[in-house]
Design a protein that fits this description.
The protein is an alpha+beta fold. The protein contains 5 helices and 10 strands. Strands 1, 2, 3, 4, 5, 6, 7, 8, 9 and 10 form a 10-stranded mixed sheet that branches. The N and C termini lie close together (11 Å).
Length: 209
């Protein structure tokens, strides 16, 4: 058993209006099927207000700086294409970037691959300083002027106190307009393959889709 992909999300950086992107508007524009039951909440923090809601298998977060669409239904959901539909309609919205994120996890006891460390200071070595909450390794690699791959490997105890390994791979693309974003959104499957390559070639762990 390898690291299992358990969630994906797409983040668009831009000047969005949370009063516009709502479940009724999404249904009216045929971006989603009309939903009878919607879970919604307003989150406030650090002078930011975010509108969060759920429609079917999709979770949405909209604030004045970003749009986030996430799902745990990973096999037949392309969150980037859904984000592109929103931006295509709101094509005058100033936007700066799109990122596709792929989240994997695996119990440490089942992990067979490499576990990156910083000078061999890992979870066990930190215990002498207190109760370890997490150990995180990060990398950011610019592949072109417009594309950056960001990766994060974290190790932390779960509710049963067994150690869980989480690997997040992000493909970040700079965009300048709606047309750029729509084109970038079509690379969702390519980005997903990048996340698999990261796991299997760099961390030497099988990716379970």
């Amino acid at each position: 058993m390898g690291a299992k992909l358990f969630a994906i999300d797409t983040v668009v950086l831009g000047r969005f209006n949370p009063h516009i992107i709502t479940p009724p508007w999404l249904a009216k524009e045929s971006i989603i099927a009309e939903q009878k039951a919607v879970e919604a909440e307003i989150a406030v923090g650090d002078r930011e207000i975010a509108f969060r809601f759920k429609t079917g298998d999709l979770k949405w977060q909209v604030d004045y700086n970003r749009l986030i669409i996430s799902t745990e239904k990973i096999n037949d959901t392309d969150t980037a294409s859904i984000a592109a539909k929103v931006v295509e309609i709101l094509h005058h919205t100033p936007i700066a970037a799109i990122g596709n994120n792929f989240h994997y996890r695996c119990s440490l006891s089942e992990w067979k691959g490499r576990l990156p460390k910083l000078d061999d200071v890992g979870f066990d070595q930190l215990k002498e300083y207190g109760e370890v909450q997490s150990v995180v390794w990060k990398a950011s690699v610019s592949q072109t002027d417009d594309v950056t791959v960001n990766a994060e490997v974290s190790l932390e105890p779960n509710e049963s106190l067994s150690l869980m390994l989480t690997v997040n791979v992000n493909c970040h693309r700079k965009v300048q307009c709606a047309a750029d974003l729509i084109a970038a959104a079509q690379l969702f499957n390519e980005d997903r393959n990048v996340s698999v390559k990261f796991l299997e070639s760099l961390l030497r762990e099988k990716a379970e889709q």
